[in-house]
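Submission sheet (multi-component)
Chains listed below:
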Amino acid sequence: AAGVIQSPRHLIKEKRETATLKCYPIPRHDTVYWYQQGPGQDPQFLISFYEKMQSDKGSIPDRFSAQQFSDYHSELNMSSLELGDSALYFCASSISGQNTQYFGPGTRLTVL
Amino acid sequence: QKEVEQNSGPLSVPEGAIASLNCTYSDRGSQSFFWYRQYSGKSPELIMFIYSNGDKEDGRFTAQLNKASQYVSLLIRDSQPSDSATYLCAVNQAGTALIFGKGTTLSVSS
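Outcome: structure written.
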């Protein structure tokens, strides 16, 4: 079965640079969630989208923005990167009305 | 503040034994309850979900939910070394983000 696709899988950036992470949900899934997981931490919710509209917002820094496109893929844009942004970034998708979320493989972001 | 609590472990069990992982949650409005397995550096993998009070079995895994006690558990029968991982308990309401516990590290020794 098709799963959530994330790209890139690994990303290395310098401080103050920008990064764009992409997420392609499972086919027919219309809802996308972004989570950040720091070393030794549990995943923390950043932001979610349903039908191209932001549906909920968590602990996403103002330096980050995201959107969902007409094909339901989503992009997380991160600017003015800081050392503390180094983490695993997961995208999860679900079908609206269903609570189960399936996670992608994640993007490991390292900020030097 | 909605919270999900888990013992961080490590929980150590011998191969073939039953592993029991526990989780409590604070929000009585929580509707759905999940157990994810996460290997180091990998993404959370859905193991079980449960919506109603009682037990739900899937192969070697049994999830138990007690909404009155705000308690969720996961039993792993015939534990295998490959079950060694961090188990994340998560809860949500309809269409909302998952709230995770900090995870319990399980170690199964052969």
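Remark: Chain B has a mean pLDDT of 95.
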